[in-house]
Every structure is written in C-alpha cells, then in structure tokens.
C-alpha cells in the first residue's frame, strides 16, 4: 500500500493544530501507520531538507524546523502522496486554496503548518529518515 511522510511543523504544533490535521486525513479515509512528537536535530533537518541546501532560505528553514516539537507521521492509502498534497495546498499559504490545510491555517511560506512528501522516492527517503521499519503499524485488510 502507498505510504507518505507528513509532518505538522513547529508552528502547527504550537498553535494546537495536530488534531485538526490528523482529523482531516482520518476522515478522508487514510490510515495512520506511525506518529511521534519529536524535536528535530540540526543533522536530521539538513538531511531531510538536503534538496534545499544552498538556497537563500535554507539556514532559516533549518532554524525554524528545529525550533520546537514537530509531529511526524506516516499515512497510507490509495493515492495518498498526491491526495495528501492536494489536501495540504500550495507551499505558499497565500496561493493555497481555501479548504486546504495551508489555505485555511497558514499565512507565510516559512510557517506553512505542514510538510508532505512530493513523490514515491521522497516518501521512502523521508519515512526511513524519521522512522524505523518496526515503528510502522500493519492493519488487517478488513479493518
Ligand atoms: P516544505 O514543504 O516543508 O518544503 C521546504 C520548505 O521550505 C517549504 O515547505 C517552506 O516552508 C520553506 N520555505 C521557506 N522559505 C521559502 C521560500 N522562499 N520558498 C519556498 N519554500 C520556502
């Protein structure tokens, strides 16, 4: 079954949006297979955001993502990578449609509430950065 990595960022955790975010994905029908509240180290932040190294916003991005607890999650379901990105909305909350998570709860690109993997390759990479295989739960087929 397709899996993706989603993370409520420090702004979302601080503002009490974990429940709202989890609820949206649960109601859509996706299954939560792993979750933890954690503080990201500089090293993990650099690995996770490796593709952005060298960009002007990279230092601030690392500073922000390590600034407080995040809620890291793995979700699974048919088409979860594409659908979860639709549900999150565009990276810049000012461009994100109302009804999406960033459109409803975000204001600026650096504090856009949630991160989600953008492809199968990045989902696999990000899941393995944040979780061990034995932390991923397995649902029985008819549950
Ligand atoms: P995310 O989906 O976590 O992936 C990279 C993050 O960089 C992005 O969300 C934004 O929160 C953050 N970011 C900060 N500044 C910028 C910027 N100027 N352009 C794009 N992304 C930015």
TrEMBL record:
The keyword 4Fe-4S does not apply. The lineage of its organism: Bacteria, Bacillati, Bacillota, Bacilli, Bacillales. Belongs to the NDK family. NCBIfam families: PRK00668.1. The modification Phosphothreonine is found at residue 91. InterPro entries: NDK-like_dom (IPR034907), NDK-like_dom_sf (IPR036850), Nucleoside_diP_kinase (IPR001564), Nucleoside_diP_kinase_AS (IPR023005). The modification Phosphoserine is found at residue 122. GO terms for molecular function: nucleoside diphosphate kinase activity. The gene is ndk. Keywords: ATP-binding, Cytoplasm, Kinase, Magnesium, Metal-binding, Nucleotide metabolism, Nucleotide-binding, Phosphoprotein, Transferase. HAMAP family: NDP_kinase. It is found in: Cytoplasm. Gene3D superfamilies: Nucleoside diphosphate kinase-like domain (3.30.70.141). The keyword ATP-binding applies. SMART domains: NDK. This is Nucleoside diphosphate kinase. The active site is at 115 (pros-phosphohistidine intermediate). Its cofactor is Mg(2+). It comes from Aquibacillus rhizosphaerae. Homotetramer. It catalyses: a 2'-deoxyribonucleoside 5'-diphosphate + ATP = a 2'-deoxyribonucleoside 5'-triphosphate + ADP; a ribonucleoside 5'-diphosphate + ATP = a ribonucleoside 5'-triphosphate + ADP.
């Amino acid at each position: 079954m397709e899996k993706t990595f989603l993370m409520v960022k420090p702004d979302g955790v601080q503002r009490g949006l974990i429940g709202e975010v989890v609820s949206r994905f649960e109601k859509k029908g996706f299954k939560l297979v792993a979750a933890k509240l954690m503080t990201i180290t500089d090293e993990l932040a650099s690995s996770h955001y490796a593709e952005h190294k060298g960009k002007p916003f990279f230092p601030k991005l690392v500073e922000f993502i390590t600034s407080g607890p995040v809620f890291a999650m793995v979700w699974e379901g048919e088409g979860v990578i594409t659908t979860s990105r639709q549900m999150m909305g565009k990276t810049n909350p000012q461009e994100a449609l109302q009804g999406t998570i960033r459109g409803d709860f975000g204001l600026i690109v650096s504090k856009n509430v949630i991160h989600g993997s953008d492809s199968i390759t990045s989902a696999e990479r990000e899941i393995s950065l944040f979780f061990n295989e034995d932390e991923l739960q397995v649902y029985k087929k008819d549950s």
